[in-house]
Each structure stands twice: as C-alpha cells, then as structure tokens.
Amino acid sequence: RLALGVERPRTPPGRGPRSFDPQSQAVTVDALLTRIEAVDGPLIVAGDLNISDRHRFYRHLRRHLGDAHRDAGAGFGFTWRAPRPFVRIDYVLRSDHWGTGRSETGTIPGSDHRYVYADLVLL
Fold this sequence. Notes:
It contains three helices and five strands. It is an alpha+beta fold. It has a three-stranded antiparallel beta sheet with strand order 1-3-2. Strands 4-5 form a two-stranded antiparallel sheet. Strand 4 and strand 5 form a beta hairpin. The N and C termini lie far apart (30 Å). The model is unreliable at 1-18 (pLDDT under 50).
C-alpha cells in the first residue's frame, strides 16, 4: 500500500511551493484503491482527487483504471486554476469495461475548478 512517509510542516494555503500537498491524500487514495480492487464489473470513478496526473498516487490508480482525458481529451486538460493554473486534479477514470468517446473540460462560473466531461460507452 501507499506509505504515508514523514510528516512535513504544512504551509498555509496559497503560500509557497508546498501549499498543495498531495501526500495528505495517501489515506484517501489507499481506501479508494481497496474499493476499486473489490469491484468485479464496470466501474467509473469521477471527481476531484486532489492529486496531479504526474503524482505517484495517480499512477497507482492508473494500474486499475483508464483515464478518459488521456483516452480522448484534447490538450493538457487542466482543471484547477488556483493557485497554480496548470494542474489536473479532477478526473473521470474508468475500468476496461468502458470505452471513451470524448472528454473535455470547461469553465464553471465562480469555481476555481474546471468541469470534466466524458462520453463513456459500455463495451
């Protein structure tokens, strides 16, 4: 499973390069992996996972699930605008039972996140 590692001092939100700490998601991702592994059938996991697609936790999830944006999205698919405008932390992940027709992101008035949309087809 995922190691929690050494606790680092937390920087107040929006301050400094470590204000977004994906390590705090270790327990959540571990619990999610346990539930994913228990499913024997079509599965969709969608939402704000608070981890970048460059993070090792994302790679752990991708061992079990496909990423709709990687399948059929255009561009980088950035979904979070503040404080760093170039991060993808919102996803539509799917089991191999699903194919992806298309995936896109767009703006939501008043939100610091962009929406994620995916056309999925049960194979």
